[in-house]
Design brief:
two-stranded antiparallel ribbon; about 45% helix; mainly alpha; Arc Repressor Mutant, subunit A; 5 strands; about 180 residues
């Protein structure tokens, strides 16, 4: 019966020829590329691997604000100054970080492997700010992304939080207090 339908059948699908169907995906117009393409002004990309990583998911709100401020700075330089990104405490404070939490946010970002920084110095009357490098982007010195966040584990984060006194249990208790209150 198959022989009647396909006379040259060699009992494999490779010999069967199908009509090539062209769908919408194959007909890309200029407008499609414009609508679905990257924006014309500066933009950054974040991989799904990074967004799903334990390092990204476990950062606190101040750390995420710090990272996003560096991403904005990265955009402002068209992605060419990674490793030399400057962001002063005043700029971070204006972006929404409390001055007392900035140092902790920088430390957390370093422990999570998302950022590396060089401390600024005060030489004579010149005040040099800290410089930062986002590890998930290439920079001039290394030429490739170091992706230090890939080596971060839950155990490493837990150990760091215990050592620094940043306890996840406090956050969970705080959330539970708001969830358990019910109107009477």
């Amino acid at each position: 019966m198959l022989d009647e339908k396909y006379p040259n059948d060699n009992s494999s699908n490779a010999s069967v020829r199908y009509d090539v169907q062209k769908g919408r995906a194959s007909k890309r117009t200029k407008q499609d590329r414009k609508l679905n393409g990257p924006p014309q002004n500066s933009w950054v990309w974040l991989t799904s691997e990074l967004l799903n990583s334990i390092a990204w998911r476990s950062m606190g709100i101040n750390c995420s604000r710090f990272i996003f401020r560096l991403l904005i700075e990265h955009c402002n330089h068209k992605g060419l100054e990674n490793g030399r990104l400057l962001s002063t405490y005043k700029q971070l404070n204006e972006y929404g970080l409390t001055k007392s939490k900035i140092r902790k946010a920088i430390d957390e970002a370093e422990v999570l492997g998302l950022v590396r920084h060089k401390r600024g110095r005060k030489i004579d009357a010149l005040n040099q700010p800290n410089s930062y490098r986002l590890t998930f982007y290439a920079d001039d010195e290394r030429g490739y992304a170091t992706n230090e966040w890939k080596s971060v584990t839950k155990e490493k984060i837990r150990k760091w939080r215990e050592e620094t006194g940043v306890n996840l249990q406090n956050r969970l208790n705080y959330k539970r207090n708001f969830k358990s209150k019910t109107p009477e």
